[in-house]
Amino acid sequence: MSALPMLDDVPPLLVVDGLTVAYGTRVGCRDVSFELWPGEVLGIVGESGSGKTSLLNALSARIEPAAGRIHYRLRDGTLADLFGLSEAARRQLLRTDWGVVHQNPRDGLRLTVSAGANVGERLMAIGARHYGEIRGAALDWLGKVEIDRDRIDDRPSGFSGGMQQRLQIARNLVTKPRLVFMDEPTGGLDVSVQARLLDLIRGLVADLGLSAIIVTHDLAVARLLAHRLMVMRGGEVVESGLTDQVLDDPQHPYTQLLVSSILQV
Amino acid sequence: MAPVLDIRGLAKSFTLHNQGGVTLPVLAAVDLTVHAGECVALHGRSGTGKSTLLRTLYGNYRVQSGELWVRHGTTRIDLAQARPRQIIELRRSTIGYVSQFLRVIPRVAAIDIVAEPMRARGMDTEVARERAAALLTRLNVPERLWHLAPATFSGGEQQRINIARGFAVAYPILLLDEPTASLDGDNRAAVIGLIDEVLAQGTAIVGIFHDAEVRDRVASRLYDMTEAKAAA
Is the CB of A245 less than 8 angstroms away from the CB of B62? Predict the structure, then answer.
């Protein structure tokens, strides 16, 4: 019998240690530590104001933390201190190696340029110049996110909310990022539209072997997408672990309250 | 040969923080050793913790105290101490679980639900679909249902899809929670056939079988849950 991998040989992609985000004297999140491995999807759950989005914004280097460190493994294998990098290097990561999917697609798309340009723009930011290839990649990605290819020259301002969200995902994934941050990716969508989007995200993340950090207040979304969960309350992580363990055998009073508050249909 | 599953002094209780902090002791002292090719039937009335034990063996419930050693390839891992990533890897390659109810994913077709554990092990999509089709045929799931998402299927149909998924991969350890509960005679026989086959191939099974006929037919021995409870 051959030895099976126990994964201890794979180094983590992201190492977060004692991360605190503050807005003046108000704390966004406090003393958060975790590691994220390649191919892993981490769900951050909790109610509004629990610090989920503060944490996500700091992790994706869009706000500077008050304390703590974030280390990210670059493509060459070195583990870099995120806020030790130059601002230009961090911006480069956001444009290439990372994706950020916002809850409101208007924050992640440019509504005044065509769908094709929205996807192509990210490619051009990493040096693509050949028009035919960029258009080809855009068409390919519109197909992957189930947007009719005839819509490539249309502006996303005329798209439905679900389509806009799918376009935002295509725009982010076209550069083959290694880590994607998603903030309530299905929030604000009709339930039937949510199901399609969730299925799409699930499939893409698995097929591309992406690592992802997904903030959601919806435990059903978390169960479907995340391997592992962190439950946040009042800026702190109160419980973390394997997704089905946290949801089926919650230990912390707050997690028990969240799980027991879901209405059954 | 070393056991595939070695449980020592396993205890589990649930504390309900939002209901007055009540603590419900469920398992107090489970000692159980299971070898390859054995089928252990958990025996005891309703409420004796049979399903809790199965879920704990799958890592779905946390181990409170005790040890839960699982043979994984040439190494062994204590599930009580395992990290989430290790549990995910154990589920991919070593431990299969057929729960009583299928967790349906919107838009995913029955055949792909069955093929998924094979694809997770790196099997080619088409090969995995062929094997999934063979299993569904064997369990008498009509072909017209294969490409539909099972949300609207009957209980028995959903259960058979769950069973096909559980038997899609040759797990060294397979946990079965009432696999024949809502099945008719022909389908019960098909499930017994599948169980016989994997046992012959060396899979170890721990299961709950309320159907005495099925239990007598497949179990190598019974594990009396009142023992597990005795110290509680």
Answer: yes
